[in-house]
Design a protein that fits this description.
This protein has 141 residues and is an all-alpha fold. It has five helices and no strands.
Length: 141
């Protein structure tokens, strides 16, 4: 009988990590918070990745493209975000303002989720405490 091939490595969610994915992620610029220190430019490929991963996680380019496009009322291709993130194209100035809108909206959403989580924790600790969630729990999905 032939030997069984070794199982492919998997990430925390169980997704297969093949060599292409590892190579692709390695080619992206490191995330960088250019709002710190004496950075001469805010909109760098690293900053775009920093904000994208902060808001959307590891698979950030498509949702970031959708969010940026929505702030302008236009469709924005994920390929465009990819080109910016690789430094193949200059990131236009309007992206800074659009990122601000997305960050503020993301913060409001996180605050809302934190409030629901706090109410859930209170109900678990003391079911008779009367912490109500109303329809908030339904809006999490």
């Amino acid at each position: 009988m032939p030997a069984k091939a070794a199982a492919a490595p998997r990430d925390a969610k169980g997704n297969r990590l093949d060599a292409t994915k590892r190579k692709y992620r390695a080619n992206l610029p490191r995330p960088e918070d250019t709002t710190q220190g004496d950075a001469s430019t805010l909109l760098t490929p690293g900053f775009l990745r920093f904000v994208g991963e902060l808001l959307f996680g590891e698979r950030w380019q498509s949702p970031l493209a959708q969010g940026l496009g929505a702030t302008r009322g236009k469709t924005l291709s994920p390929a465009t975000v990819h080109r910016w993130s690789m430094g193949l194209r200059t990131i236009p100035g309007w992206v800074g303002e659009a990122l601000l809108v997305l960050i503020e909206n993301g913060r409001r959403e996180l605050d809302r989720r934190a409030s629901v989580a706090g109410a859930l924790a209170t109900r678990i600790r003391n079911p008779r405490a009367g912490a109500t969630l109303g329809g908030e729990l339904d809006s999490l999905h």
